[in-house]
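Support reply, case 0932

Customer input (verbatim):
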Amino acid sequence: MPDRLSALDASFLYLEEAATPMHVGGVAVFERPRDGFDHEQLLCLVSQRLGYLPRYRQRVLAVPGHLARPVWVDDTDFDLNYHVRRSALPSPGSDDQLFDLVARLMARPMDQERPLWEAYFVEGLEGDRVALVTKTHQAMVDGVGTVELGQLILDTAPQLCEPYEDTWTPRRMPSATQLVLDAISETVQQPGELVENVRAFVGDAAATADKLADTVGGVASTLRTLVRPAPAGPLNTHVSGGRVFAVVRTRLEDYREIRAEHGGTVNDIVLAAITGALREWLLSRGAGVPASATLRALVPMAVLEADTVEFSTAGLVNNQVEAHLVDLLVGEPNPVLRLQHISHAMRAYTDSSRSVAARAMLKVGGFAPATMHSLAARAAGSFSGRIFNLVITNSPGPQQPLYAGQARMTRMYPVIPLARNQALAIGVTSYHGNVYFGLNGDRKAVSDVGNLATMVEDSLEELKGAHW
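Our regenerated output:
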C-alpha cells in the first residue's frame, strides 16, 4: 500500500501560500570548539542520523487528477548538500544580522518537489560562534514516525563523527498509472474520499475546514471557552510575504522567584510577561487599551493518552497536542493581577485535561522542544485565525548543555509560522538555565517586533519587582 499523507498533513500543503509558508524553524547558536566545527562536520553528523528519519529522504508526489491525497516516496535524486546549506555573515557578524537572515530564510517557501526540510550552517558570528537555522514543514513532523531534526542531532556529550558508508538505496518511484490504480482501489473502499480530495485541492475552504476539524481528533472540543471572534486589533491582518524576527533571553531563576512570590507555573509567568509586553506595545502605538481589553492567544499544550503512565514522544499519537484559547488581559495595569488571571484560566485546562507536566517532558531524549514546537504549530494550524490574535507555544528543554558533534549549544530560539491573518507568533523554550523567546512577525504589520521583544524583558522585570 502507498504511504499516503494523512488528511491533516495534506491540508498543510493545500493551504500553503507564498506569503504563508507552513514550516517551523529553530535557531541554535554554538560555541565553536577548539578543534573547530565546520559545514563538513555538520554534514557528517546529519548524514549519520538520517537513517533514523526516513521521512527526511522522502518527497511528496501528487496523484494524477488529485483522485487521492499525495503519497510519500523516496527522493531518487536526494542531495544532502542541497538540504544542509552553508551561509555566512560579514565577519564579525552580530546577532541582529543573524536574526535578519533568519527572517529572510523563514519567509521563503520550500520546494515541494524535494524533501520538505532545510538546514543552514551560518558562519561569521562574532565571538567565534556558528549558528544552525532549521526549517521543517508541518506536513512532516508527527512526533511518532518523524521527529524534528534538532531533536536527533543534539547529544548530552560531545561526539566525534566517524566516517562511514551510507548504504541507503531509494526505492523506485511509482508510476502515474500505479498511483491512479492505488487511488481507485482506495476510492472503491471509501468513495467519499474522492470528493473530499478534489474539493480540498481546488481550495474549497468549507470542505477543508470540515476535514481539518475531523482530522485533529476533536481538538476543538477541548476549547473550554466560548469560541467567538477574536478582539479586533493590529495583529489580525492579511500578512505579507516578509518577516521580522526578534528574540528575548531571560533567566529561568527569575521565573522561579516570581512563582515563589506570586504562585502560578513557569508557563503562567511566561504568558503574563507576554501580556504585559503586548499591553505596552499597544500603548506605544497609540491604541486604546480600556481596562477590559483582551487579546486571545492560542496556546497548544502536550497531553497524554488516557492510559499512558509515563510521557514520551511515542505517547503523542493522533496529534495529542491540544490547543487552548486563553484571553490575555492587556487592559489590566497591575502585573500581579494579570498573572492571577492567567493562572486561573490555565488551571481550568490543566485540572480537566491530561496536560503534560514540564518535568515529564524533560525525560524525552534529545532536544524535545524542537519536535514539540512543530506539533504545537500543527495544532494551531488547524484553527481559523479569526478566533485568536496570536499563537504562543512553550516547551521546556533540558537544563544541561547539549552538543552538535563537539560544538556546545549556547542558545536556542524557536520560530513559529504565521497563518494567513495572523501577524505574530511567539515560541518559547527553556534550556540550560535560561528561557528563550523567538518572536516571528509580519514585516509590514509588526515591523517594530524588536520593541515588543524589549518590552517582554521589561514586563518580566515588572513582575519581579511587584509585591502583593
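We compared this against your earlier run and they match. Two observations from our side: The radius of gyration is 22 Å. The longest strand covers residues 84-93. Please reopen the case if you see a mismatch on your end.
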